[in-house]
């Protein structure tokens, strides 16, 4: 309700930048609910506005959210296209954190759709960025999912060290999130391909 009220006010005063940001926030909320049709509508509108006003950072961030929404709807090709469109924008503006987040999100889309080689390649792109910026939680998530992608390919030799690395980081920085990774090391998932 508050975001809708904000949108009406922003439209009334003609603040297109804040309107795009609010629509993106609304779309992200809808993805999490999940109200996916509403999410896609809000995010497509946010992306259009950001593009029209020339705000590449906002457009790239919105494309990442739109990719997540399309993926949740099962629209893999459209999701992948969003990530491939936003990644060069993020590289141009030099936002390394959001670039890593986009690679991680693209990897998550591929993992969800059982494209394990593609997922692994994405995780290998974002991992060094998360390491360089010191984002331990995202680094652990990436290692966890890198292990999952490797396991999906039947590659336990790479899955186990990835999970071990994730577990070490989680135990050190985010202990409450370590149980799922610990379970993989106790009983590794079987190859699902």
What does this structure look like?
- The chain starts with a helix and ends in a 7-residue tail after the last helix.
- The model has no long low-confidence stretch (mean pLDDT 91).
- The chain has 193 residues and is mainly α.
What characteristics describe this protein?
193 residues; mainly alpha; 10 helices
Describe the structure concisely for a colleague.
This protein is mostly helical. It has helices spanning 2-13, 16-32, 36-53, 56-72, 76-93, 96-112, 116-133, 136-152, 156-173, 179-186.
Order of helices and strands: HHHHHHHHHH
Q: What proportion of the residues form beta strands (DSSP E)?
A: under 5%
Can you tell me the overall shape?
A: elongated
End-to-end Cα distance: 44 Å
- With helices defined by DSSP (H or I, 4 residues minimum), what is the helix count? 10
Could you give the topology of this structure?
Elements: H1 2-13, H2 16-32, H3 36-53, H4 56-72, H5 76-93, H6 96-112, H7 116-133, H8 136-152, H9 156-173, H10 179-186
Helix pairs in contact: 1-2, 2-3, 2-4, 3-4, 4-5, 4-6, 5-6, 6-7, 6-8, 7-8, 8-9, 9-10
């Amino acid at each position: 309700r508050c975001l809708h009220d904000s949108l009406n006010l922003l439209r009334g005063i003609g603040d297109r930048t804040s309107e795009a940001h609010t629509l993106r926030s609304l779309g992200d909320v809808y993805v999490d609910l999940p109200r996916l049709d509403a999410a896609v509508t809000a995010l497509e509108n946010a992306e259009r506005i950001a593009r029209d006003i020339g705000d590449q950072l906002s457009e790239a961030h919105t494309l990442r959210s739109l990719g997540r929404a399309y993926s949740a709807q099962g629209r893999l090709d459209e999701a992948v296209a969003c990530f491939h469109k936003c990644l060069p924008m993020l590289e141009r503006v030099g936002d390394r954190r959001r670039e890593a987040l986009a690679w991680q999100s693209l990897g998550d889309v591929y993992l969800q759709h059982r494209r394990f080689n593609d997922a692994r390649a994405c995780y290998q792109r974002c991992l060094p960025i998360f390491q360089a910026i010191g984002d331990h939680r995202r680094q652990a998530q990436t290692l966890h999912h890198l292990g999952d992608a490797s396991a999906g390919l039947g590659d336990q030799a790479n899955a186990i060290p990835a999970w071990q690395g994730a577990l070490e980081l989680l135990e050190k920085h985010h202990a409450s999130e370590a149980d799922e990774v610990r379970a993989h090391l106790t009983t590794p998932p079987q190859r699902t391909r």
